[in-house]
Amino acid sequence: MRLRLAARLRAFGADRRGSIALIFGLSAMVLIGLMGGGTDYARLTARRNQLQSAVDAGALAGGNALKLAMPNADAIIGLTTQTIRTEAHAPDDRPLTIQVTVSDDKTSVLATAEEQFTLAFGAYVGLPKAPIAVKARANVVGRMRLCMLTLDSGAPAAFALQKNAQVTANDCALYSNSSSARGMMGQNNAMAKAQTICSAGGFDGARANFSPTPQTDCPVIQDPLKDRPAPPIGTCAKPPFPLDLLPAGGAKIDFNTTLEPGTYCGGLHITKDAVVTLKSGIYVMRDGPLIVDKKATLTGADVAFYFTGNRGGLVFDKKTTISLTAPTTGVMAGLLMAEDRTVTAPVDPTSLVEALLGDIISPTPPALGLTKPVRTYRIISDNARTMLGTIYLPAGRLVIDATRPVADQSAYTVVVAQQVNLYEGPNLYLNANYEATSVPVPKGVGPVSGRLLLTQ
After folding, report:
1. Residue 34, SS3 per DSSP
2. Residue pLDDT, tens place only, 189-240
3. Is 163 found in the same domain as 130?
4. Per the database record, which ranges form the Putative Flp pilus-assembly TadG-like N-terminal domain (predicted)?
5. Are residues 108 and 238 in the same domain?
6. Smaller CB count within 10 Å for the chain: N or C?
C-alpha cells in the first residue's frame, strides 16, 4: 500500500513539473510573440508608409504628364509604374504588384501596389507574412501651362543650358521630347526654374540646379501648333526708298526708317546704328535671314516674322536693341516668329554675316546632336527684353548666348522649337502673365490652369 502511494506521489510531482515547464514555455512564447509583435508592427507600419509615398509619387508623376498633354494611356501607365518601383525600393524576395489605370477621359490616374511583408516574429503566432495594399488617385483639374517644348525626338541636349545659363519659367512647364539619355542637359552651374520640368528621355545635370528636379521618361507631347496655317507669301517687297542689295538679294538698311510688312526676298540686314520701326503686319523672310547688328535697333508692335528657305534664320547681335510684340489678330495671331516646316540644306546666318557682309560675329556654338536639318535662330543681344508672343520653330534651333536677361519685360513668351540651347550665362524669361496683354496665346500652349488633387 505504501509503495503504491509513493509511486502515485512521484507521478504527481512529475506531472506538476511538466505542467509548470509547459506553462513557463507557453509564457515565454507569448512574451516573445508580444515583444516581436510590437517590432513587426513598427516595421510593417514603416513599410506601408514607404509604399504609400511611392504610390503617391507615381500617381502625381502620371497626373503631371496628363496635365501637359493628352498622350496614350500606355505611356502614362509606364511612367507611373516606373516611378513607383523606383521610390518603393522593393527587395527581390518581396515581389511588388503594381496596377495603374488611366481614366478614359485622361483626367485621372489610379495606382495600387501590393506586397507580402515577411514578419520576423509572426511564425510564433502562425502568421509568417502580412499583406500590404496601398493606393492613390491623382485627378487632373485643367491642364498645365506649357511655355517651352523642344521637339527633337532623339538628339542629346535638345534642351541644354551651359555656362551659367538660366531659364526662369515660374508659372509654367519646360518639356523635352528627346528620348536620348541626355535629352535634357544642364552644365556649368546652369539653372532652370519652372512649375514642372519633364524629359521624355533622361536628364544630365550633375553640375546644374534645376528646380524641381526634372521628371524623366515622360510621355512625348505632340507638336501643339502643327495645325497652324502658314501666312501668304507674296511677291518681293519694293520699299519706297533705295536700298543696298545684299549679295543674296536681300535688303540692307543702315539708316533710320519705318518698314512696311511684306515679303523680303533674300532677307533683311539692319545695321550701323539704324533705328528701324516695323508697321503692323507679317514680315516674310524669303530664303534669307533677318540680321540686326552694329548697335542697330529693331522695334515693332503687332508684328510677326515668317522664315522660309535654306537661308532662313536670324541673328540679333550683341550691341543691338530688340523690342517686338506679336499680332493680336489674323493668321499669325499670337505668333511672333514661325517658319516653313521643311528645310533641306540650311545655312547658319552667322556664317552669312561674315561671308556676304564682311562683318564678324562669333561662330554659333555647334549642337551636340541633331535628328534633322534645322535653321539657326541666334540671339546674342543684351537688350532683347521684349519679345512678346510665341516663337514657333518646328525646323529651327534657338540659340541664346547673350549675357543679360532676354524677354524679361514680356508679359509672356512661349517657345516651341526643335532645339533650345543657351550659352554664356543669359537668363531667358518665359513669363506667363497672360492677363497683362491682348496678344492671344495659341491653342495648345499657355494660359490653361492645371492642378492635381491627390486622394488615397
Report:
1. helix
2. 999 999 889 899 999 998 899 998 898 888 888 899 999 999 999 888 876 5
3. no
4. 18-64
5. no
6. N
Angle of the 2-68 helix axis to the 73-88 helix axis, nearest 10: 140
Q: Parallel, antiparallel, or unpaired for β 108-118 and 97-102?
A: antiparallel
Which is higher by pLDDT, 293 or 206? 293
Radius of gyration of the chain, Cα coordinates, nearest whole angstrom: 33
Q: Which three cell numbers stand for residue 161?
A: 543650358
Query: Residue 71 belongs to a domain with what CATH number?
Result: 3.10.450
Range of the domain at 173: 145-449
Q: Is residue 19 part of a domain?
A: no
- Strand residue runs (E) in 294-385: 297-300, 303-308, 313-316, 321-325, 335-339, 375-379
The reply to whether omega before 261 is within 30° of 0 (cis) is no
d(Cα 442, Cα 94) in Å, to the nearest integer? 49
Question: Where is the domain boundary, 95, 119, 141?
Answer: 141
- pTM, to two decimals: 0.75
Of the candidates 120, 119, 215, 117, the one whose C-alpha atom is nearest the C-alpha of residue 173 is 215
Residue type, 389: G
